[in-house]
Amino acid sequence: MKRRALTEYFEIFGQWFVPENPAMTLPGKLVYSMNDIVLHLYGSFVPLTGTIGRGSIPRSHSIIYGSTEDGESITLIEMMLAGVTTSFNAGFHQTEHHVPDWVIIGEHVPLDATYCNIGFRVPALQVWHSRANIIESWNSGISDNRRVPAYQVQAIESDVVHVNILNTDLMWTVGWKTKSDQYSSLSLDISSWVNIHPGDEQSLKWYMDQFNIISIMLSIIAGDNMGADCIVATITGSLQEVSIIFKHKYRCCGYRDTRDFFMPRDALNVDLSVLVNNWYSVFDSVRMPSILAQSTLGSDDLWEHVKYLAYMQILEGLHRALYPGKYMDEEEYNDVFIELCRAIPARVESNHRDALKQRLRYGNQVSLKKRINELAGRLSLELRNSIIGGDGNIQQRWMDTRNYYTHWDEDLRGNILDDEHMYYVNVRLELLVRAVIMDLMGIPQSSIQECLMNMSSTAHRLAFVSALDQV
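RE: above sequence
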């Protein structure tokens, strides 16, 4: 079976059918691009009959099977009917357009299928590991003095990390692909995979959730998107390898040198097994802000204003997950809340009174500025000073900017960041998000401090902004 990359466009022609009626097949074309997957079905499994009107819309299907012209089996899962085209030229013709969430190439798979293992190829992961995969040497020619190059792929053993909380092994492997015509060209491509081997068979969704956790961890550390561009799986009870395809809307990392990464593996100063298990131990508590962090840090075209507000939301979410964020004990505040509600003047009408009570209900929560400073307080003073600048505390102007764009309070407008300074602050907030999450992973803060001075673009941006502060 040909492994299908999520980054490659393809079209597949074949015959398609639904499991409940395998005798009825329809011709169709499956088209995949990074932003979309559509099955154009020339006909319908439930043809329109009688009077055709607005309500005459065929139903969608949870699963559709296909067999290609090359004899390959395909499964389309969780279908959505995206449109119907009808034509009355030379008779009545109907075309349906179905959008699947998942495409499995290689077998006809039931909806409730489980999998023994799934492998995720991660671009640039082989570089992040900081180990030379190819050794170049020069040998003397047999009949003359010319030197001949020789290339050898290093036999590197797989790293096996056991995730205790899941009873699951993560195998970090290296693969390669060669191509040669024996006469004029030779190519060698090295790739790296994360293979998930659970103790018990699991659903496709379970595997995708686990890889998402690993991808977030790697992306925060590496300084770029560390998503997969190819996914292969083994179905329970089958030895056949299948490719898994879904809409791939993110850009994968293209780094070619360890110096491009914010923190390559050899700069972690913590064992990979310890790192992964630390991350799994805290992930559920910080799941949502971490997902927001990955999508924000990995987006190339976000406006600075949007990025700024997202960083503030991420930091608030991390604090809420890790700290109480209360001025006093909740039971004690409940008495204060009752007294404050009773103190509302009787002349305040009911809707206004309810609004005031709603605001008072959250009156025990600390301010966002206090939240972010407390969160940053996890870091050493040296690291805070390097990332935040100044005395290592959040400036009031930063908070006024967030509050203005959240509440549109015109009294704050005179103290908000302009576009240029918002970019400078975003550089600092990005690194604050990375540093806090990396600290949660158990990465030594001294390692983070060292990476602020490396050759990565992330560190270079901070150096530029810090230099401006000295002018």
